[in-house]
Amino acid sequence: MLAERCLAIMAGVALLLAQPASAQEAAVCAPVAKVRPERHLRQLTLDLLGRPPTWEEYKAVQAKGAVSQEDIRAMMGTEAFYTRVRNFHRALLRSNISASVFNNGNSRLGGNGNTTPFGFANNPTVSLRGTNNQTCNAEIEQSTCQTTTQDPHIFDVFPVPGRKCHDDMGVPMPVSFDYDTNFYTCTELGAATGNVATDCDALKVAPTEANPWPRYRYFCDKRVVSGATKSYLCLPDKTKNTTAALTKEIEDANKYVVSFDHPDPASKPALTTLKRCTLDLNLNNNIRGSYVSSSRGCIQREGYVTKPAGYWAPPGAPATVKVCAIEAQERDFNPWTRDSCETARFVNDRSCGCGVGMRRCEVPNIGAVPTDPLYVRNVHDLRVAAINEEPLRIAESVVRLDEPYYNILTTRRSFVNGPLAEYFRQRQGVGVFSITAPAPVETIPAVPYNDSSTWKEYTRDEAHSGVLTTPSFLYRFPTHRARVAEFYEAFLCKTFVPGPEASLPAPEDACNRENNLAKRCGCNYCHATIEPTGAHWGRYAERAAQFLPPTQFPRFDPKCRDCAINGDTNCGGECSQYIMQAYDGDGASSLGLLKTYLYRTPDEEQNIEAGPRLLVERMYQSGELERCTVKRVWNEFLGRPMTAEEQRMYLAPLASEFAKSGHRFKTLVERVVSTDAYRRID
């Protein structure tokens, strides 16, 4: 019996496939059965609200016998629908910059502010403390360095000349040192000496033949381990070729070893010496205020200070926390060199610190549960989440206010929550993000940093254009060409793919050497459109969300030109947005020109100054925006693209009604979910 049924089904399928195309089309156009009202209700609540119907909703639709337009409109007035709108635009705009912003973690602080001070614990500590992944001394308060010492056994015989807590400009100096176990093997003193000495203070005697251990007095290192101070003898690591070769012990006048040297430095070994550690710092290139560690293999730690908790501290957190003295500083520039602390270099400059309120630094997750005294979530993750959400809030507001849908591409209205508001208002994120504040900071709403769920509206500067100039869009699509490609795909339903008639010239063809892609043979098929369209984002830097105002970034900068002619392509770091090297004739005549103006026609230069809003206004005239939006909404709520037949039946009428409604998104959604196709039994 089962076999007969299977054969019958297969025969039916074969008969259908054997019908001519006209017969199949007639079947599509014939009257179709529609789902029952209960099924229609279930489809609508799942699609519009993201949940199944309630029992009360089922009973109401059974009583009426159908889902009315009023029912659909009521659903589209709920918060659940606006959440659905945000999710639709999250997919449309691919709003996720997690992989687009490189955060090397250099400005991220370790510690908890209590048992361990907040401080850098990554790459920057090489320039600050001599070795990677090292924090400050958690036992010595910086201002007490002259009365509190970790290794007092070395100072009475060999006092450190520069023993000061701060230099003449107030920059913190080291208060203690440790030997780096990348170069030394550090063994507890008792075990190393056979219990001849168990504390570094026992080595404060003259060495003798009977007791030679005091010779290594300077290499005895006191450390705090699990709350207890222990003494360690640190000698060059014998398991490594570089340090094991340092067999020559150099002594001072008191017979104390001061360094371990290579016996044959003329052979140019990788490592020639390891000197005793001190609290002195050297000057980098003899520049005052530019400090480097005095000896290889030494970890030179400053102390801590107590200060108010950083901007990330939630209500009820401890009022003050421990912070490493270097990171606790609040300068805007190096007091010695006048170098800025408002760039990524601040993490490597001993004089900069995290700034007022710790604004230049980040912290990872702190605390396990919300009841912990200091419960903080990863600052970078919260900023990324806020940036991702901003364009979705713009789109939601346009739909919520029932404005013309394409206002999402042109409005200056935007929103901030706590992490985003504080980022702009306090100039945070130095060295991680490159985002120009979208409005004067005093006009950006004040939202407490820890309030991620409250979004407040404000108006951005005139240069902004809907979602197209949000940091999310600019970072997610980092080049002008990528921004054009996303605009065409998301809002015009077009992609840039060479047609069959497009072909590349022979390798020896001179056209291959044309740097202007809008003219290069084989490339101009797409780039003749991409390049002039991309010019609309010309005032926004690539791989950043930085606006380039004409007052600060003129079309041509003679200083950059002069630097380029003199071979100085860096030009003090001021000309990164300008053409500093010539690759062809046009480039040679364009030195000092803002990069985005290279190869531009007069019409394209107008695109640069007008911005993305001009592009949207031009696309209005083609009708492609309406047709693409109809296709996007159809695909979203039917779960599939329009078939060729459905495009003939529905596309033009829906696009026309959408335009006549003033491009109201809710009206389009209502029409789509009211079509026979939506209600057809599959």
Summarize the structure.
This protein has 682 residues and is an alpha+beta fold.
What is the strand content? 5-15%
Strand numbers in spatial order across the main sheet: 4-6-5
Q: What structural class should be given to the helix and strand makeup?
A: alpha+beta
Main β sheet profile: 3 strands, antiparallel
- How many strand segments? 16
Layout: helices, strands, pairs:
Elements: H1 2-18, H2 21-29, H3 37-49, H4 55-64, H5 69-75, H6 79-93, E1 109-110, E2 119-120, H7 125-129, E3 176-179, E4 184-188, H8 189-193, E5 220-225, E6 228-236, H9 241-244, E7 248-251, E8 257-261, E9 273-275, E10 281-283, E11 291-293, E12 298-301, E13 304-308, E14 320-324, H10 379-400, E15 413-416, H11 418-425, E16 456-459, H12 471-476, H13 480-492, H14 524-534, H15 558-565, H16 585-588, H17 602-610, H18 612-620, H19 624-638, H20 644-660, H21 665-673, H22 676-679
Antiparallel strand pairs: 1-2, 3-12, 4-6, 5-6, 7-8, 8-9, 10-11, 13-14, 15-16
